[in-house]
């Protein structure tokens, strides 16, 4: 049976906070540039290792010198020591390139350059090191998927704002996942998502300030969830934050919960 045809279990889709964290990209071509386009907006510090870089990669490095470092050398294991750790290691090399080396017994073996980077990373940092080898699902600890970062929302009043969506095929059909992503964005473009997120963010911060104790966490979450459901996808954008905050205070008093009084501000 073809191992690629075996049904894969679902992945856990996570939003990684990358600001300030180092990422190693081995490769300097089109795929490496695509990775840069995803990573630079997150605030990650990206090191690219390759003996050649495309003009687009060079331009990105010039525009973001504090975030992007180019190492103009063919990959060696010692490049893994350029940082004390790597949040992610991304391998963007042609999968057919062969690297010849000797094993512990002195016997010659052949593996692709991509496989070598993967094995080196696991040997140096351990099995927990997250590595993604482009176009080789078997050597991917995670998949990028098709996300909405930098994706146009079309002609509507809406923009995604801080909302990010990810569609993943679990490495089966990345381009098809991108088509699904584009279709979703076309529909969402008419919604006032950015304004809604801003209002809800402001309200949640105010609610936390009024009822800050850990014993109030469940109360806050339940109330905000119920309000969000009631407002729906369009109602949150026009919400009066102060009016809803007053309702929250009344709700807490009805339940006998303690909220901060005006005198506590002094």
From TrEMBL:
Check the record and name the Pfam families matching this protein.
NAD_binding_7 (PF13241), Sirohm_synth_C (PF14823), Sirohm_synth_M (PF14824)
Q: Which intervals hold domain Siroheme biosynthesis protein Met8 C-terminal?
A: 195-243
**What's the protein called, per UniProt?**
precorrin-2 dehydrogenase
Q: E.C. number, please?
A: 1.3.1.76
Q: Which InterPro entries match?
A: Met8-like, Met8_C, NAD(P)-bd_dom_sf, Sirohaem_synthase_central
Its pathway, per UniProt, is:
Porphyrin-containing compound metabolism; siroheme biosynthesis; sirohydrochlorin from precorrin-2: step 1/1
Q: Please name the top-level EC class of this enzyme.
A: oxidoreductase
User: A GO molecular-function term, please?
Assistant: precorrin-2 dehydrogenase activity
Name all Siroheme synthase central domain ranges.
161-187
What organism is this sequence from? Huiozyma naganishii (strain ATCC MYA-139 / BCRC 22969 / CBS 8797 / KCTC 17520 / NBRC 10181 / NCYC 3082 / Yp74L-3) (Yeast)
Starting at the broadest rank, the lineage of the source organism is: Eukaryota, Fungi, Dikarya, Ascomycota, Saccharomycotina
Whichever gene encodes this chain, its name is KNAG0M00860
Instruction: Please provide the record's keywords in A-Z order.
Output: NAD, Oxidoreductase, Porphyrin biosynthesis
Report if keyword Oxidoreductase is assigned: yes
Q: Where is the signal peptide?
A: none
Oxidoreductase as UniProt keyword: yes
UniProt superkingdom: Eukaryota
Mention one GO biological process in which this protein takes part, according to its record: sulfate assimilation
């Amino acid at each position: 049976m073809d191992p690629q045809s075996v049904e894969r279990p679902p992945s856990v889709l996570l939003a990684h906070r990358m600001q300030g964290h180092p990422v190693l990209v081995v490769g300097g071509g089109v795929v490496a540039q695509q990775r840069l386009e995803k990573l630079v907006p997150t605030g990650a510090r990206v090191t690219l290792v390759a003996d050649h870089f495309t003009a687009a990669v060079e331009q990105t490095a010039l525009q973001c010198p504090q975030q992007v470092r180019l190492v103009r050398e063919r990959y060696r294991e010692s490049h893994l020591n350029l940082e004390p750790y790597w949040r992610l290691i991304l391998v963007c090399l042609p999968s057919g390139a062969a690297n010849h080396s000797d094993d512990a017994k002195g016997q010659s073996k052949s593996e692709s350059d991509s496989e070598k980077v993967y094995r080196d990373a696991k040997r140096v940092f351990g099995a927990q090191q997250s590595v993604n080898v482009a176009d080789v699902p078997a050597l991917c600890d995670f998949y990028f998927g098709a996300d909405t970062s930098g994706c146009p929302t079309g002609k509507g009043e809406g923009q995604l704002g801080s909302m990010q969506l990810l569609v993943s095929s679990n490495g089966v059909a990345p381009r098809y996942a991108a088509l699904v992503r584009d279709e979703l964005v076309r529909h969402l473009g008419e919604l006032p998502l950015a304004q809604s997120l801003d209002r809800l963010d402001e309200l949640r911060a105010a609610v936390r300030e009024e009822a800050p104790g850990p014993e109030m966490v469940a109360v806050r979450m339940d109330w905000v969830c119920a309000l969000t459901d009631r407002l729906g996808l369009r109602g949150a954008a026009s919400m009066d934050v102060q009016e809803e905050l007053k309702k929250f205070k009344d709700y807490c008093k009805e339940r006998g919960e303690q909220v901060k009084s005006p005198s506590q501000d002094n």
